[in-house]
Design goal:
The chain has helices at 47-53, 81-98, 111-122, 124-127, 147-159, 178-186, 196-210, 233-241, 267-279, and strands at residues 2-10, 16-24, 31-36, 58-63, 104-109, 130-136, 164-166, 193-195, 220-225, 249-254. It is of the alpha/beta class. The chain has a single domain (2-286), classed as Rossmann fold, CATH 3.40.50.1820. Helix 3 crosses helix 7 (196-210). The longest helix has 18 residues, at 81-98. It is globular, with a radius of gyration of 18 Å. The chain starts with a strand and ends in an 8-residue tail after the last helix.
Amino acid sequence: MIDHSESTFQGNGGINLYYQTWKPTTGNVKAVLAIVHGLGGHSSKYGNIVQHFTPQQYAVYSFDLRGHGRSPGQRGYIDSWAEFREDLRIFLELVQTQNPGYPIFLLGHSLGSIIVLDYVLRYPQAAAVLKGVIILAPSLGKVGVSKMKLVLGQLLSRVWPRFTLNTGFDLAAGTRDEKVLATYIQDTLRHTLGTARLATEFFDTVAWINHHTAEWRSPLLILHGGADRVALPEGGKIFYEQLTSCIDKTRIEYPEAYHELQDDINYQEVLADLESWLEKRITPENI
């Protein structure tokens, strides 16, 4: 059985952001896994992770980014990347307050991976409390958006920052599981929108991250699908190779897998690898 709860917290600027928790109903929690979702997604998209890890005595936390899911804000819009960064900082403070003394792991998926990487690099002291960082399908290199839309976003960011376009991501590029694809189509919380300002803030942040790889210290796990057409795996591979100062880093690429690793047909293999990595970093004195 899983104890599920929903609430809100005040993000940067006072915005009320929706979040969820899933905890085992029996036994002691041994670690916390905090999840940051991707563009157009929301906190309810990680059911397989919840179902796998709560019976293993993990508490799972996730929130809806501003402009996503049940949180307010224009869909796919931010004024600056600092809003994402500060929202995550406040959320992690909430997680720590509710789970004092427990090991905390931070997981980011797709766009969420960029939010996570930026947070850890910008706030190394705060991030030092994390037992480890996991990024799924990091969008660190080329992404599956047409060049025309990217150029248009650059041009409009200053004069019309809220200008919105459909990202054009192919839904079928998410997973090879037809049943999961059907649920994606019916998901009313999901959106496919991106604004000009979000585009420029995103690419500026990716460039900043790639220029600060030498500063990375946290234990890091990168999981990527070799057939990912949304966030091409080459970017994550280059980033991994540039982590020259990181003594605890692992990258696993699944040759046939798509973008939504947690929902693809090999998700059990992915979650088993994730569990193995987590368990090795939970020391007895933390349990």
